[in-house]
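HUMAN: Ready with one sample?

ASSISTANT:
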Amino acid sequence: MTIRKTWLAASVSAALFSLAAQAADETTPAAAAESGAQTQTLQNITVSGVNRSTRTENKDTYTTSAMKTTTGLALSPKETPQSVSVITKTQLSDRGISSLKDAMKTTTGVNVLRESGRYRFQSRGFYVDQIEEDGIATTVAGSSGNPYRDAQSLYDMAIYDHVEVVRGATGLTQVNGEPGGTVNAVRKKPTAQTQIQGDLLVDRFGKARATLDVSGSLNASKTLRGRSVIVGERSRGFKDDDKGDLGLFYGVLEGHIGENTKVTAGLLHQRHTETPDYFGVPMSVGGGDAGFNTDTYLGYDWTHAKFRKTNAFAELEHYFNDDWVATAKFNYIYSKSNSRLGAIYNASTTYKGLPAGGKLSTQNFQNYQNGGHQANVQLNLNGKYNLFGRKHDVFLGYTYSRENNDTTWRRIRNSRAYDPRTFTGGEQAEPNWANYNDRTFYHNRITSNSLMLGTRFNVLDNLHILAGTRYTQWKADGVTDYDWWNNRPDSDPDEHSIRRKNRFVPYFGITYDITPSQSVYASYTSIFKPNSAKDINERYLKPVVGNNYEIGWKGEWFNRKLNTSVALFQIDQKNRSVQVYFPTLNKWYNENVGHVRSRGLDLEISGNLTENWKIFAGYTLNNSKYMRGENGRNSVSPYLQGANFSRHTPKHIFRLHTSYDLPWGGRKWTVGGGVSAQSKTSSLGYVKQGGYALWHANVKYAPSENLQFSLIADNLFNKRYFENNKVRYNGINNYLGEPRNISLKVDWKFK
């Protein structure tokens, strides 16, 4: 399918994730007349209401009924005045997805980038700097510096019920950062009924994965419940020497103290190893595909990274009455990693590409030893109050966050060159890291305190105004100690930096129900992010500021089983750092003259078209440019006024997945499939990638309610492509995407 056809197909799709509702029938008992005469039975009364539970497991659905990621209030998607998506447990299972990066590749408008061996997410041309777990934010690896100096580990989807995605800035719940959006992974919680489930998965590259999930009540009254998840994985990728493993334990307890208080506490411990691909493969001279085999890996065979993560969390929820509830949350993460890196690439080919018969040099051997601590406390009070004869919602919140990261970096200088087409990875053994040439210590700490206050005025039954603000005190301090340099002690003074910023961020939203099943909305919030770049005088640039605007329409159909949405958005961002060339100095420096604008359209449809037919489809149109940029002292600068500031973001992104339960044979067979398509992209290095479409399909057979077999195919037509990357150059950071993969999955459960 061509991108033009894909865009056309997407344009006729409408959009939003489905909203579930429950209806409870209540029949009044028979009432006897006071005279003792004839008994009469009153007419049945049906009470309908929206289920505000966010859980999606054991529900054959592609939606959740409520989410708090945007505003802090438990609102349905239709009530939320921003573009939102949800990836449910059913979607993850249908696609055989076990990582957050693969989950994001299925989501409307999210651009998944491969950067320095790590993955970053973007939406509407901007990074997603905030990933939450149960509403508590953590910093994204690489968002504040070199991703190899970050100990954070991957997010394994086995412990999550679903993932909520908000596109655009979330001013009330986002402390600071880029306005791309927020991702909130919602953890699994214990169930009252006993259930034991698990799955086994193998694929054509040698990956083998097993999961066990046990949940249920721990006492007869079911006031104490527990859940544990265990994962074991042997990972094998499509590249030579790409291997790793994963071990995970997750346990959570949930209990009641009296009738009005619920306490939740849990622990996650995770270890995994992986094989980093440091530089990717080079392009040919001129930027064309150099034709390397898809499985080419230009790292030494001893290159590896080890990660360890321990996460303790707790939550207390107390209901004062039907209208008021207080919540206290605590989250602590300890991370540790050790990366040993060695790979070949030639700096002289960075811009020109690899000539015929050219060699690539070893770019030194590097070792990163990282340790990180993150602690978060969140206090919330949600309630209702009466004003002008109507009941309205109010929410207050306080968040404290502290993050410490320490890195020891060692380098052993080495520049031996090899032919990349015959390179095996065994040309040099792993060095003795005690014989380093250079060593540097890094320490960074970020703290923030935030207060949030807002209200939802229910002006009419069909008119709601949401207004609020967030005040943040933010501080970052860091120390860089060049302890050893060029084989001798370094006598230069340590580099110290301290940054402090305080900021009010307003939020305003309005929704109007034009019918019971359709609404229109508008929202506004401002943008704030401290700038880490320095100017020519080594002073930090002013914070990045701006505004986020959105208007849209949402609908829910078939008794809230199918949802659609349309959104128009504009994001303006000022004080953005751009590199400016000074010819008299023959150097590049940063200036905060960048003013960028991103505009576009989101469409989404999700839910049940019929009882046995589910769909998720999303389309995004995005145009972005520099309204003001580099002053033209360098005509080839990527920061010129009028230039596309996010050229690595496709103008068109279309995502589709659908599944259908075949009507014969007792509905034991299910077929599914879809496509992920995007238009052409470029990079800061002007390396181009044409538009492409990746098709997928799956078949499921369930011989019983407790057993299911799935055959899953990704990149069905074996499309060759390079992953999106902001900093692709002809000689570096070109990563070939995964070729066709076939997986076999077995799911089982007992209740």
About this structure: DSSP finds three helices and 36 strands in the chain. Residues 1-50 have pLDDT under 50 and may be disordered.
